[in-house]
Amino acid sequence: MISLEKQPSINGSTEKGSSLEERKKLAIPLPSDQDASGRTLGDDEIAMVTQAIRTGTLTATKGEFTKQLEIRFAKCMDSLHSHACSSGSAALHTAVAAINPEPGEEVITTSITDMGALSAILFQGAIPRFADVDPRTYNVTAETIERCISPRTRAIMVTHLFGNPCEMTEIVQLATSRGIPIIEDCAQAFMAEHHGKLVGSLGDIGCFSLQQGKHITTGEGGMVTSSDPDLARRMFLFINKAWGYGDPNPDHYFLAPNYRTNELTSAVALAQLDKLESSVRNRTEMADLMNQLLQDIPGVYCPTIRPGNKHTYWKYCLDVDASVIPGGTVALGKLLKDQGVFCGPRYIQKPAFQCQIFRDQRTFGNSRFPFTHAAPEAVDYTPEKFPGTFEALSRVLVLPWSERYQQHHVEYIADVIRSSAQKLLQA
Question: What distance in Å separates the CA atoms of residue 87 and residue 364, rounded to the nearest whole number?
């Protein structure tokens, strides 16, 4: 392994006067999960799609690829049932619909999440009630969730952000004691573990995304899992316009969309599923290497992983202390980008509750529904209630990650981080 302490600077010399253009020329191209360089897509997927096309049956209701995917995915995720759908957002919507909240009931969720998780709640007439997060793991905790529980609480939605599991033992104990079901958003956390158990199998429903940048990709796609037969049945129906396929006298039993996948997507997913274990192993091994290489940089810290958890690194996140590193994540991020290391300071930039949809309650026409049914405390977004959220976003610097990363990629990124941090410290 290259010793970073003994290396010259990234431009190959110890001179300080290298231009930005020179540094960019010497940057190592990094695999990207947005194209073939960072994905495992190849002949296996082509072969599976070819088989699907040759059957002439591309609808999931009549084909075999989706059925195979659902059986294999459930087994892989330690659940009794799984159903494929059209996106990760559709998976989350399906999960909330399976819980079936009344208008104005609350689903406790995180303040740092994708809008797909929040629109799912609103579309079912429920109110997202935001819990604060641990500023080091970026995840909700039993303590922050408990502060949000009210007589209107219908469910808890936890997000294992970036592939780092929430502290599920305490969260499950809390939810069980109150009789509240748990939805796990595992879109970024395939094969992550909490005390030896896979995320998605710890709560009542698991939701997964097959979007372009996830551990498994089909471009777009989603999966829901559950070991509760009643929840699994309702999710199957919701994905299929609530039509009872296979029932003796089927009907459309309740209001539901068409969130079905198709046989081509399922064919790609089946080939990708075969590669999941090796992809996760490479992501974690390269992240372990990065953790070793980034030790002892003042003001720059590796991901915080609580004891008993296995992080599977959808992204690799740095924790940057602006009181030590002048300019914090923005300044460090700019220097990284200048040398070919794309990164995202602050991740989503602002807490989810500061988005226009929540600030102005812009939903269905001018009705403001379901906010018209909300308890005042559920829509109180006073910043003082979310100290962990604001601290987390001010410190997080998100680096891309991929199963195609190799040792020389990681060593390059680590060298850039170290030299950039030192430049800011010396400024």
Answer: 22
Work out how many domains the chain is built from and give that number.
2
Could you tell me if 65 and 171 lie in one domain? yes
Which residues make beta-bridge pairs with 106? 127, 153
Give the model confidence (pLDDT) of 193-221 as tens digits.
999 999 999 999 999 999 999 999 999 99
Give 221-238 pLDDT, tens digit per residue.
999 999 999 999 999 999
Helical H segments across 255-406, by residue range: 263-293, 328-338, 356-359, 387-395
Q: Where are the alpha helices (DSSP H) in 141-190?
A: 142-146, 168-178
Q: What is the mean pLDDT of residues 104-124?
A: 98
Report the candidate in 373, 366, 364 with the shortest Cα–Cα distance to residue 127: 373
Statement to judge: residues 229 and 248 lie in one domain? yes
Q: How far apart are CA 175 and CA 145, in angstroms?
A: 9
pTM of the model: 0.93
Task: Give the domain-ending residue among 272, 296, 327.
Answer: 272
User: How does strand 153-159 pair with strand 127-131?
Assistant: unpaired
Pairing of strands 396-399, 344-345: antiparallel
Domain identity same for 157 and 20? no
Q: What percent of the chain has pLDDT over 90?
A: 93
391, pLDDT greater than 90? yes
Give the confidence band of 427 by pLDDT, cuts at 50, 70, 90. Answer: confident
Indicate the Cα dihedral angle 65, 71, 72, 76, nearest 10°.
150
Q: What's the pLDDT score for residue 24?
A: 57
| CATH number, domain with residue 316 | 3.90.1150.10
- Please check whether residue 397 is in contact with residue 343, taking contact to mean a CB–CB distance below 8 angstroms: yes
Q: Which residue has 């429903």 as its token pair? A: 205
Q: Is residue 365 part of a domain?
A: no
- Clarify whether residues 181 and 109 are in a common domain: yes
- Indicate if 245 and 341 belong to the same structural domain: no
Q: What is the pLDDT of residues 81-95, one digit of tens each?
A: 999 999 999 999 999
Residue 171 sits in which domain range? Answer: 43-272
